[in-house]
Records
---
Amino acid sequence: MEFSIKIADMRHSLKKKIIYLVGEGTGETISRIARASLVQFNREKFDVKTFFLVTDKKYVSHIVKEAAKDEALLAFSIVQPELRDFLIQEADHHNIKAIDVIGDFILQLSIFLKEKPLSIPGRQYILDEDYFRRIDAINFSVKHDDGKFPQGLKLADLVLVGLSRTGKTPLSTYLANQGWKVANVPIHPDMLPPEELFQVDPRKVFGLIISVESLVKLREARLKQLGLEPYAKYADPVKVADEIEWSREFFKKHPKWRVLDISNRAIEEASASIINACRTGKKPV
């Protein structure tokens, strides 16, 4: 009897935990907060379920009931007081832990500023100067992705340089969403980079390096997506190791460029390192 209880306890401990993210808008705010927090933990131990555009009590009730079934942790970003209070009541009723990810901050701001909050959903997306700056940055990064339009490199806030599948495009997109105009340029031993790259302020250029194991996995996954054999030269460990060594030597020829190792790093973490390096003038960590 005792043995069977221990087995049940072990199974329960191995079961993935579930995290619910609930937002009344597009979910961008709570998703960003969650991503920045969850990278600190082992991704294999939990799953995330998202529920966005939540604007009525019926939908809230459904979500909380599902969360109760999953024994989930529920994190939410809802600024409408009535809907927020209803969610908290439902969570208490079903014995679910619910975290108000921005409500507590808004409350403290209200006390500090001695001003009642507007409680307007989506107010953070008002079409202000910052919004248009981000749109310009996104358009710029799309136009200058993967070495396209090298004539515009001098206009970039940042230029990412690296081998194929070193995360240049995802990083560019993420940084662009924060308002940075980012261009990225692919390099390869058999390919000459555009001359414009060497005319860019070297403080804006970041060389991306990665471990052999990580790059092989990424390239094998890409080959699989394309329906090709995973053992092609593109993902051959020996060839990959040679490319990485070549890229390191290439970056050494440009000592004012800053080099970032993105092996096993989340986009958010790599992005934060780049931004911090830009603002402090130091090498990325």
Note: Residues 129-280 form a domain with the Rossmann fold fold (CATH 3.40.50).
---
Amino acid sequence: MSRLILFNKPYGVITQFSSDGKHATLKDFIPLPGIYPAGRLDTDSEGLLILTDDGALQHRISHPRHKLAKTYWAQVEGVPGEAALEQLRRGVDLGDFITRPAHARIIEEPAGLWPRTPPIRFRMHIPTAWIELVIQEGKNRQVRRMTAKIGFPTLRLIRCRIGDWNLDGLAPGNWREITSA
């Protein structure tokens, strides 16, 4: 039976077990040998990271060919209107590639959201909004690039779901092992 670990990666943690000398690593939170992340999450992003000891399962989770949906909550600078959301839904030309169409909608601040350390920058005269974005890719800094391209830079980014797995009940820095099917 494969081991499958769900981890709520805090802001500032790098998605590797070896140290870079500057950031906390997965090793600082998960004392299990022989497991590896199925995909990555940028140092300045938070949320769900899946780890496993099964290379084939790791590939099925992380490879875009398998079309495993990834859901993000993005706090953006400004308040996007329907036209901006429609751009995300159609796909965004990022110069080096055009994203696949995404599901995008404005949401309230997610319930039970933990404070980020350090907090995001606050500007008195510029409002922020939360977007729920569901993509089936996951290229380097893709969500941040998408929101910036439509004129609403991401201030905070949290991955809350990968396929059927989610963050429910996992505080930042905590993990749990689940049964893999």
Note: Helices lie at 55-62, 82-90, 142-149.
---
Amino acid sequence: MKFIVVDTETTNSIDDPLTYDIGFAVVDETGKVYEKYSYVVADIFLDKELMESAYFAEKIPQYWEEIKKGERELKGFFNIRRKFKEVVNRNHVAIVLAHNARFDYRALNLTSRFLTGSKVKYFLPYGTVIADTLKMSREVLKDNETYEEFCYNNNYLTKRMCKKFTAEVIYRFLSGNNDFEEEHTGLADVLIEKDIFAYCYKQNPTTLKSMWE
């Protein structure tokens, strides 16, 4: 069984995010990668005014360098959408995963609607289930005493003194590398989130559920 893990980077605002970076990879339940893709969304990225509000706007020169090197592909949003659908169909993928999936799902759909005047409302192929590795992590790690100790010892806590479940913190715990810093680019983040998925699935496969459950 194969899955796709997807991650986006956005501009505009948290409430109305528009996607300029889409990374995704085809993986199995062990986290093995079969295909991976990194796209910069030309429709958004080339709009200088829109990109001024990108949270990681300082990374724009890095993106240009990686595009020149062929490490990322600058491509129109709907060409990326067609490629995503082709990869889903070819690999018989039924479940797409993201960490904090509601955000990525909303960002992709809002970008689609923004660029088409709402003529095309959804990014994912019809019938695709989207699942959230954030929800999986909370279920698997909520009673894990080692993770709790790790968070409290390192002050990985929310304002309400609850354990954090960001991808960066979870990956630091799983990898044993407390100096790890999330890159906050699409594909790089996918490649840590697929490990989070594999860990959670191995601990308890029943945590893999639709985001809407």
Note: Strands lie at 2-11, 18-28, 33-41, 73-75, 95-98, 129-132.
---
Amino acid sequence: MEIIQYTPNMQEPLTQFYNRMTANVPHCYPVKEEEFAIAMHRITADKADIKDDGLDSEAAFIAVADGVIQAFIHVGISRSGENREEKLGVIRFFGYERGARRAGQVVLEKAEAHLKTFNVSQISAFPQECQYRFYHFEHAYLSDALDQVQGLLGFNGYRRSSGEVFLDWEDYSITPIPSSLPVKLSVEWKDGRGQFPNCTVLAHQNGEQVGICESLGGGEFSSHTDAQTWLHTTWLGIEDDFQGKGLGRYLLQYALQEMKKIGYRHAAISTAWDNHRAFLFYSNCGYRTVDWTYEFVKDLSEAPTHKW
């Protein structure tokens, strides 16, 4: 087995590897080579400005055996919240073939060694703000479908620090039930990357906004044909004084209805792993759980002793 650093001439087999790794991850559609190359383009630079995904000093390591990729990891350096001087290590993506545990272990150790040269005290794996655009829908962390990766991270001292549950509603059909509140709804459409526009539904009472439902088309995340008829509701918010009166359900149902009129057919939504109220609400609206995703964090001062 050989461990090598990523170079652009490896893009084709690496894209194929990524597509194999994510084939069973909900809302991860096959990505084209040129699209994956965009996510990798800053790796060849010595240093990149911190912007957009918040990373610099990116690197990627690949384990190859008999000419076949067995494992891949993409890392970089981020900054900690308000303290922009503190450096944090980030694992942007990590995958290895089931059964190739040793290859996964070796590239993980290689990546950690790279990050440690920047004197980081903590490494975050699969944080939302650093994910590939085409990986899952917005707000996703490391999917349960990549359980072998979760297992290896846990074995190496990483712990779950955040989580997001994803729910789907395929071929949804909805008739909005109006709220008991006298509100006026308005719909705003905005073109994006996808075949159909993104949608925001607003609720007003006496000229003041009291609720909002924001949804993005699946085309925002993937150019694949299968993603275009999916919508992902990214935010549903009701002012405190107006909660518990059916307004949230009405806003969500109304948004789904309006988006179906223009071509959307399937709906997805997500919430934090510990937001039991929202989880209960969505699971009783027609959605069904399809994935649990987690961010993993490792404090480097707490490294375990491996026993194979």
Note: The two ends are 18 Å apart (CA to CA).
